[in-house]
UniProtKB/TrEMBL annotation:
InterPro entries: Cell_wall_metabolism_enzyme, Dup_hybrid_motif, M23ase_b-sheet_dom, Pept_M23A_Blytic. Residues 177-269 form the M23ase beta-sheet core domain. Keywords: Hydrolase, Metal-binding, Metalloprotease, Protease, Signal, Zinc. This is M23ase beta-sheet core domain-containing protein. One of its GO terms (molecular function) is metal ion binding.
Length: 399
């Protein structure tokens, strides 16, 4: 229930009065929660109803991260998902300021959020967070690039299963912004650098969100054994977030341990169709959970494995070393066995390929080949020991 005092909409935020300045700390906290819930339902309620295919919504959760003197608050708010669908909750960061007319609340992804966060005391919203929010919001105003710059949420050079192809954050809902993955050691890692936030923290699980500077955010659901990093902590590509699981801290359903990865642009879910993540371009079809991913001439469908080739902070194509019966592969000064050995590289390592050339024949893991790859280190490796997903060159010819 909303407080009985009148409410006034200013900009994108909602001001909710709660009586005289002498109100108790408890009533102030209650009124803050009411104001945040009202703003969340007003701005994100229609989106949640459409995603969840329901007219009625559960009461939004309000979880402050930091507060100051009953005048400022920063935290998360979440609309739980129904248990009848494979769904993830609708969540947002909020910043709130109390003034003469009550609480002004702004949600992430808006001009008002950036402005109010910038005005907040540094011990409520840190300078580093203010900078991130501004950069994310500014970048989100531009048309999204097909290459997200993000990796897949596990170790580079390792293959996981795509258990559920592109689908909605709540199953069949549009856009198809989400993909389900499982495999390997089960460790879910951040798809890119940014800052981490947890919402709907329940039973050792939560919806985990990483906001990135490039206008994107990624969310991770169903995890267990979450990172102990506090809200707002910086993360890098590959920072541990949790383990795949069947956890449902804020509704939804799960039939097997996995991570439900979702892609957002600004404050909205965005289709992964034709988006490149982890070196793979994802494609949606008319039905949810189908779809597929491509890399060069290689296609991976639902139920098949794909290797994480990392983000595109380095634009060079990549491959994974497969040394067969050996533990390491020799690196040479040129494209042939008659060139000197200068180094070795371990089985399973991810290498970046600068260019390719034809040289001496090598009996590799997949047969005989004369294709050699010059790496970004300047050293050469036979393509017979590098998995790139194709027998054709993945990089231009060397000069």
């Amino acid at each position: 229930m909303l407080a009985a005092a009148a409410s006034v909409v200013l900009g994108t935020g909602l001001l909710l009065g709660f009586g005289p300045a002498t109100a108790s700390a408890e009533s102030t906290s209650d009124d803050l929660a009411d104001a945040v819930r009202a703003t969340m339902l007003e701005q994100r309620g229609d989106t949640a109803r459409e995603q969840f295919s329901t007219r009625s919504l559960a009461e939004p959760l309000v979880e402050p991260i930091t507060t100051e003197d009953d005048a400022w608050a920063f935290g998360t708010t979440t609309i739980p998902a129904p248990s009848t669908a494979h769904a993830a909750p609708e969540t947002a960061l909020f910043v709130a300021e109390h003034g003469p007319q009550g609480w002004r609340v702004e949600l992430d992804g808006t001009d008002g959020f950036v402005d109010l966060a910038d005005a907040a005391p540094d011990d409520v919203v840190s300078d580093e967070e203010k900078e991130l929010f501004a950069k994310n919001h500014e970048a989100a105003q531009d048309a999204p690039l097909a290459d997200t710059g993000l990796g897949l949420p596990w170790q580079e050079g390792v293959a996981w299963w795509m258990g559920g192809g592109p689908h909605g954050n709540s199953g069949s809902s549009r856009p198809y912004s989400s993909i389900d993955f499982n495999g390997g050691n089960g460790q879910v890692l951040s798809a890119g650098p940014g800052r981490v936030y947890k919402s709907c923290v329940r039973g050792g699980s939560a919806l985990v969100k990483v906001m990135h500077e490039n206008g994107y955010s990624t969310t991770y659901y169903h995890m267990r054994r979450l990172t102990n990093l506090s809200n707002g902590s910086p993360v890098q590509t590959g920072t541990y977030l949790g383990l795949i699981g069947n956890e449902l801290p804020c509704g939804g359903s799960s039939s097997g341990a996995h991570v439900h990865l979702s892609l957002l642009r600004g404050d909205s879910h965005i289709s992964v169709d034709n988006m490149t993540i982890g070196g793979w371009t994802f494609h949606t079809v008319s039905r949810p959970y189908q779809g597929y991913a491509t890399r060069g001439n290689v296609r991976v469908d639902r139920g098949e494995r794909l290797t994480n080739y990392g983000g595109s902070d380095n634009s060079l194509p990549t491959g994974t070393v497969d040394s067969g019966e050996y533990s390491r592969v020799n690196l040479r000064t040129g494209p042939g066995l008659d060139h000197d050995i200068v180094d070795t590289v371990a089985d399973g390592a991810l290498v970046r390929i600068e260019c390719t050339a034809r040289g001496g024949d090598v009996d590799g893991v997949w047969g005989t080949t004369d294709l050699w790859n010059r790496l970004d280190t300047g050293n050469w490796i036979s393509d017979g020991f590098v998995y790139t997903g194709t027998n054709d060159p993945v990089a231009p010819a060397c000069d």
